[in-house]
Fold each of these.
Amino acid sequence: MDRGRDERGHRLDFDALEPRHMPAGAGLWAATALGTGDVNGDGTVDPSDLRAFAVAFPSRAGSPNFNPAADFNRDGVINAKDARVILRSMAPLTTRRPLNVSLALAPEDRPDFKTSQISGGATMHQDFTIIGHTTPGSLVIEDNHKSRLSGGSSAYKFTGPAHAVDASGNFSIKARNTEGVNNNNFLVLDPFGGRLIIDFPVLWIPYASGRIGR
Ligand SMILES: [Ca+2]
Ligand SMILES: [Ca+2]
């Protein structure tokens, strides 16, 4: 299908579908006209669709988590192109705001003693959880965990998994330590077209992990 036309061949003005240009309630019309964004097929594009989309991201036709309803441009892969479509189709849950992201270790993964300075956090656990807060309705995409700080942000490949930010702005991500300092990089896409790359390095204290026996 021509990306600039709908299924009946009507021309679609993508710029006119940007949320900032739409009157209240137009989100539903935009989603219907595009035939996109409504992953669960209930006629609206809302946080439940974003959650279903995150489950299917990333995937390709044939993989277990592939969901054809989330492959909006029907190219057989669910990737950042589809992410942009659902973020554009879903009516924003808040007024327009700057994209800010805060990240922290889950309380149960923080050590009970003071640790050396690191911009992220320090934990004794190999498997741990990062909790975050940002604009409700955003999508948080993990990098491929092969990035290195020395490569700069251009070396990051944000191939997922992805996480839907809930209506309160909260999200949580399970991660695993594999070395002393572990870089955890995230690409955050908000409903207003904003994007931000954020790094959360975690220092792993493995000797303590073994002693505690988690
Ligand atoms: Ca829906
Ligand atoms: Ca696709």
Amino acid sequence: MVFGQIVIGPAGSGKTTYCNGMAQFLHLIGRKTAVINLDPANDNLPYECAVNIEDLVKLEDVMSQYDLGPNGGLVFCMDYLEKNLDWLQEKLRPLIKDHYLIFDFPGQVELFTLHSNAKNVILEMANKWDYRLTAVHLVDAHLCSDPGKYVSALLVSLSTMLHLELPHINVLSKIDLIESYGKLAFNLDFYTDVQDLSYLQGYLDSDPRSAKYRKLTKELCEVVEDYGLVSFTTLNIQDKESVMDLLRIIDKSNGYVFRGIEGNINEFNKLAAAPTKWDYDRTMAIQEMYMRDDDDVNDSDTPR
Ligand SMILES: Nc1nc2c(ncn2[C@@H]2O[C@H](COP(=O)(O)OP(=O)(O)O)[C@@H](O)[C@H]2O)c(=O)[nH]1
Ligand SMILES: [Mg+2]
């Protein structure tokens, strides 16, 4: 079974840095990983990519040939990828045997809230090719420093979740820099848990510019709260603990954590109901045990 991550989020939110950091971390813990660059606007990739969309279509060529700007060019490139999915499938074929896949996607928000091309690429992988994928949606933690920007981050996160229909983790990236934007109006938990947005209202009212949009903001916050879907986890890509904590959540959401125990419904139920942190190391131990058993069986050629 193929497992992986779809890395998305606005331009500059840290996607490429994340793909590099996460791939290095996975390499350190012994998980064979391939990073696939599907963002034609990425240059100077910090990671060694196993597949690069540049080999299929180049943003510069598209922009000059069709007289498009960078945004239009990217939409074209995603359309082109959607029409050439067999190219992607062929490139991934040698990897899917034993690699965990990380996809670095473009940062144009409209690709994940509005257009269907990137979504169709992702759904083809998830539904037709049966890859188990989690969307890792990065949002720059800097947006917490301004209540208006925070509301926009909530809306983008919610729209992306509803649009993609995948297991989805929202991440406040670059959390190491959060202090550098001044003191936050609320504790960090307030921003990550998204529990009672009415407190934001009072804060927004104190700024005459945002007071003008009081009613609109209130309604938008109510939409986010009524769905009850958006919450965030935090990430400092330089910090191994932080990357590990995020990986635990991702592994549970796309089912990687249940790998190897499909046949054991009791074990499956226990793991599904347990808190993420607690069960992780135990799960890994169980998986290793099952895999060792499998190896023993295979080695001795005993019929199962
Ligand atoms: N301090 C800090 N900087 C980061 C982090 N992640 C990314 N960056 C920086 O943010 C900038 C944009 O990152 P990039 O990965 O290119 O974003 P992308 O456009 O979403 O792919 C780069 O200068 C990175 O070095 C982080 O966790 N902490
Ligand atoms: Mg990038």
